[in-house]
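Subject: Crp/Fnr family transcriptional regulator structure
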Amino acid sequence: MYPELINHIKRYIQLSAADEDIICRYFELKKFKKKELILEPGKLCAGNYFVTKGLVRQYFVNNKLNEQIIQFGLENWWIADQDSLLNHQPATTYIQTIEASELLLLSEKNRIALFETVPQMESYFRVMMQKAFIASQRRIGYIFNQNDEERYRHFTGLFPGFVQRVPQYMLASYLGFTPQFLSRLRAKKI
């Protein structure tokens, strides 16, 4: 049984005890060490990962050979290369642990079977995708409408505990500025 997963799902849909048991059978627990690669470009994404413990990041390497973080995943968050999953093509991103992590893998084959067995799970995943899409839209809006200092202040206000867990250079990458700029901001005690 995976209580973190079940509790998260039950925030969005109703489940019977039988449904809970069935759902858990479709997931596989994966344990990763700190800084371990889960996915790299050129490989097929194995499925959707639900983070039960730890912290992961999704990133690509741009043409200047800089890592550009596009998403973090911490406890009770989902992470995957959706383009690879949906289009059955090699991934273009990396997924790597930042901390030692435990993730529940729902393979694409198992996701399809799960939807047939517990149909309300399709509603749950629709909500998760909508929430992820909204988060992406907001992030793009922040990048276009806020200066670097405003973006940093806003993000740290929303996720103060998370900011303490992430190395400074990774936070800078995610927020779209250099680690040096972030150091200057922190020195100003913003």
